[in-house]
């Protein structure tokens, strides 16, 4: 059975794994994200030592996903300056000599859930992470969605709550976008404590649910997903999910009808693959790239 390499490339850590075509993760290591010069050799050593058919990468972004572009597979405007313009796909392809699948970290996580997890029955689904940033992976007809580029639905504009005590959101690009108002660091800026230390403050989570609920209403109106997965550090707060569902119901205002909306508990759901949806999605990216390159033209 062929083996596939998987890399979940994040701003703080790089998770390298080996998986099989059933999504089993057989081995994994986690390396701190330093500069490419410091981090790439260790990652490449890990993968080179295995007999891999292909490797898949779910990468922090934005990234260039246009296969016709000379910089396809590179990281673009990241605040991690040493990684800006780094040719991720090129480097793996050249060094390992095997097919390299590539997508955003959130599209990979969405793909992991839709291949082996809680959205496998749905052809159209989204995966939202609320952590250090806010990101959304989009699956349309079973495939990660790309258009001009990939969606950046963590940076959508939401209406600020009139009672929000934070004067302005913290996104360096947009101020009051969703990420600027609702990410873990935004919670910390607004309330003066880390999000995990705010468990007992009802108003914190009511306001957070107001923003996340608003965003989800927009995603529902635009994409009509059949199921929505909510993950990321901030959603470790148990009271978040019920509050978010309540906000979604309230803000939709009874306008829409659809199977999912009759049963929000099964429509907006927590992650199902533990911490593995990202690497499992990267395995699927590797499998798909392997199949595409093996297929006769
Ligand atoms: P990343 O987004 O970097 O991959 P995480 O998804 O773990 O990592 O998100 C980190 C953010 O989540 C931090 O801002 C942290 O404060 C917040 N966070 C982590 N654990 C919790 C928790 N139990 N409750 C609320 N917020 C949390
Ligand atoms: Zn933004």
Helix content percent band: 25-40%
Structural class of the helix and strand makeup? alpha/beta
Pattern of helices and strands? EEEHEHEHEEEHHHEHEH
From the alpha-carbon coordinates, what is the Rg to the nearest angstrom? 19 Å
Strand content: 15-25%
Distance between the termini: 24 Å
- Output the number of helix runs: 8
The major beta sheet can be summarized as: 5 strands, mixed
Mean pLDDT: 96
The bound ligands are: adenosine-5'-diphosphate, zinc ion
Count all strands and give the number.
Answer: 10
Oligomeric state of the chains present here: single chain
Order of strands, main sheet, comes to: 3-2-1-4-5
What is the molecular shape? globular
Q: Runs with pLDDT <50, length 5+?
A: none
Would you summarize the structure shown here?
The chain is of the alpha/beta class. Helix content is 34%, strand content 20%.
Written description of the protein model:
The chain has 297 residues and is an alpha/beta fold. The chain is built from 8 helices and 10 strands. The chain has helices at residues 36-48, 88-96, 105-116, 178-182, 184-191, 202-223, 240-252, 277-294; strands at residues 3-9, 13-19, 25-32, 52-59, 100-104, 125-130, 134-140, 143-144, 227-231, 268-270. The strands form 2 sheets. Strands 3-2-1-4-5 form a 5-stranded mixed sheet. Helix 3 packs across helix 8 (277-294) and helix 6 crosses helix 7 (240-252). The protein is globular, with a radius of gyration of 19 Å. The mean pLDDT is 96. Residues 155, 171, 173-174, 177, 179-180 line the site of zinc ion.
